[in-house]
User: Fold these one by one.
Assistant:
Number 1:
Amino acid sequence: MSHSTKDRILDAARDLFVERGEAAVTMRAVAGLAGVSTMAAYRHFPNREALLLAVMEHGHDKFLAAMSRALSAAVPLQRLTASGDAYLEFALANPRDYELMFLRPAQVDLTCAPLAWRDAATFRFLVDRVAECMAAGTLHGDDPELLAFSIWALVHGMVALYLTHKLAADEPTFRALYRRALTHALARA
């Protein structure tokens, strides 16, 4: 199946971001890599901000697909734990996507408002996993959104520390620490 011009532009923007960082993503550079004119790039994306937003949305789609694989686990707590594992695997396998999605200050006017996380499909996925654990009696409490936010803060904080080299640990040590911290947090929830 051939890629549309828009898909080629989006792929080129993502590749530039992943390989060389946000500053490398210019409409001209993206158009050149996609093999289209700069004007063609502007026909599909009105500006650089819209293009970066589309790259970020694509990252969130990939992230949700990775998280969704956790649904194959047999029981609610296993699905929640598998979600945490999927979060880590996605972040380690796609550090630049993760950086754009979660670690970059908004240097461009990306329309993801500060509170949009509440509506994000990936956050709703986590809330659903927590709610099913609460319904099964595996986790306690009556506010699945608050507990999901706490779990997200834990795993995001750990991943952010690791990816920004603020945590002196090699990958196997970090993986073990991450899993222990998540298991510990869930056991007390």
Number 2:
Amino acid sequence: MAILVTGAAGFIGFYLSLRLLEAGIPVYGIDVMNDYYDVSLKEGRLAQLKTFSDFSFEQIDIGDRTAMSQLFERQSFERVVHLAAQAGVRYSLQNPLAYADSNLLGFVNILEGCRQSQVEHLVFASSSSVYGKNKKVPFATDDRVDHPVSLYAATKKSNELMAHAYSHLYGLPITGLRFFTVYGPWGRPDMAYFKFVDAIAKGKPIDVYNHGEMKRDFTYIDDVVEGIIRVMDHPPSPSTTAEATAQNEAATQSKVTSASDTSAPYKIYNIGNHSPVTLMDFIATIETAMGKKAEKNMLPMQPGDVPATYADVQDLMDDVGFKPSTPLSVGIQKFVDWYQDHYSKS
């Protein structure tokens, strides 16, 4: 039985689908193929997936209720990995309705399809953006995330709440993954590392926000996919009433409500490198990989941005025995090599 991967032509969806197909696992991919960024990248990823006989694909908008309902009626999926979404913090300031259509309505369509077809495990993409400007580091899943600073982050927090409701009401096993700044070959052109490499290659200045006073927990794509696959095979089980009561009492006493302290078969994990890097060190790593210095245009903090991200991945280690570990220098060199090869052929 095929695994449904939404956003299969997207960055993470492509790598996950490829990994599953290489392991002989059938994948049914869907993607809207919109023009939020260069569609040729999506087409290039999709072309590689279509070389596998076990790969099926439909161009579907997850916000289309009828199309999604028909998909779940036609096909049977044991597991669903939901990665499709309108991405980007800054773009959410320009086109908020795109986030409502895809990230809110689209997610309800996924939840309802999984409920109606009794999917064994739904894994969905959340984001480190839900932590907002939390000052406590590293960010842990039992931290409060009630103050998002972008609409994108608010939609991801909403996804977590909707998922918990469905898990509680219908016993649907659901796991949410808060990704921390994913990067690598075939990545998204709207991400800083892609923009920096592209600008440096073309002899253009790079925009450095908050005058470089930022930190990010950069996570290499292979580590993210490994985390997804391990979690896919580890659906959450509902806690016993006694356990749930004890958890809720502890949460009340400490005035913290964990995202995973629940009697529902529901869990949230961080997937990050647990090793934040300053923006200036990040740029220096790119310069080393390219053998070329960047001309820097120092700018103030942008609306919706946060000064730092830093993942606590202890729960991931405890439950599935994995934590991301690819060094930034290794991952950036792989991206630069891909970029130079890919665009030399364009």
Number 3:
Amino acid sequence: MTTPTNPLGQNPWGPPPTGMPGMPQPPFPQQARNGLGVAALVVGIVGLVFGIIPFLFWLGGILGVLALIFGIIGHGRARKGEATNKGAALTGIILGAVTIVVSLVWLIVIVTAVKDVANDMEDEVRKQQKASTAPAEPGAGAPDDEPTEAGPATLTFGATHTYEDGVKVTVSKPRPYTPDEFAAGHDKGNHAFQVTITIVNGSKKAIDITTALPDARDAEGAQAEQIFDGSGASEPFTGTLLPGKQAKSSFAYSLPAAADKEMQLEVGPKVLDYEHAIWTGPTT
């Protein structure tokens, strides 16, 4: 039986439905993979909000890194045509980078503040020690049977200072250091030097080394600025050092070109329990 046709040769019942078996199906459009671009934008915004809060900057830094990663992947998908939100991914990259920088600035500010507090505590302790050992009457000397207070031990770079309980501190010789372009604490025209401080706990008890923050001075006695950057210029000690263990950290300082031939560094493993020792010597 044949299908009747009209004089123009067309099927009077219209074209067959596209869903019939054996008929070619139209291609379905591919769904855009916009998830990471959106995630980069949202995480970047939230991270920046946390990053500007002093005590939540560390969380902002983590979110900033995630936003940067999500944004880079999402941007790559948009360039391949797999996603349609290239602008959102790019905004997430920018927000992530800004958040990371803000978090690093907060870290530098807080570390500097902790160092200033530790210095103030040390100065106060020294004032109290001097007051307790001062003669009772002005101009009177100390009694012969009472020992006078000794000043900090002075050593050359590379030498080791050993305390009575067995704790040892060694400061390496200064070596030239090149800060990266985002470094803080380094002025143009200055020369940067880095030292490595090693603390060995030879005592029978654990010691807190968090407050072992060294101070450096140049050849003219002016305090040198400590350098912080993303390449590990200065890495302060953290935590508790157990007996028989050692800890190493590097510290970088910026010295004026006119006074960079010699450096003095003062450090102790803990402000309240140990007297600081001083290391001096040439920088070259």
Number 4:
Amino acid sequence: MEEVKHYFVGTLGIEDYYSASLYEQQVLELLDKEFQSHDYALLSGGSMMYIDAVCDGIDDIPTIDDQTRETMKRRLKEEGLEALVEELRRLDPDYYEIVDRQNPRRVVHALEICVMTGKTYTSFRKRSKKERPFRIIKIGLDRPREELYQRINARVDKMMSDGLLDEVKALYPKKELNALNTVGYKELFDYLDGRWPLEEAVERIKGNTRRYARKQLTWYKKDEQIRWFHPDDKQSLMNYISKDYE
């Protein structure tokens, strides 16, 4: 990051609203500007929906207004997830059949759309690919599973030694925020709540990170446009990119 300018890193507070749709819009605006003076840009990361939003587009889902968001947040806390799942079944039975009903974020978001617009969430999910005014080369980086898991475990240990627990303690009063419902934070919040000892919390971070890595690979392996390389095989990777530009 000291050598190359990065965008969309450290730009939001934990209480700020954000979505893949906003990301798509802002990245396309940035690329339109950057391509006036640069021939290429590099999109890097692992968030599947956000990368797909830039490459393929995302459905034009309305942005949730603050009043609706606060109302649904309060209802989730007071009524519980089961009640909201039942309401989603009534308002949008098609999405009810496919949604992860144990995932409060997805259930609440779908209900927010239903309540705010008076239409079903399903009606906005058209799944149509959008054309982009630039070429896209997709590169996937993968390692043998054992090697990947060893690196994940070592990374978690380093995060702990670098002060992750102190960071989580500082954020504990805001642990209910959606932005903090992520691997690394939620396991240590549970430790602070006395649910399990610190050693188990760390092992759960490692296990959940490995599980998320598998989920990422499963998602991306379905994309036939991605060409896969070992991260250390830099020459083959560069040869592939160079050939594609010929």
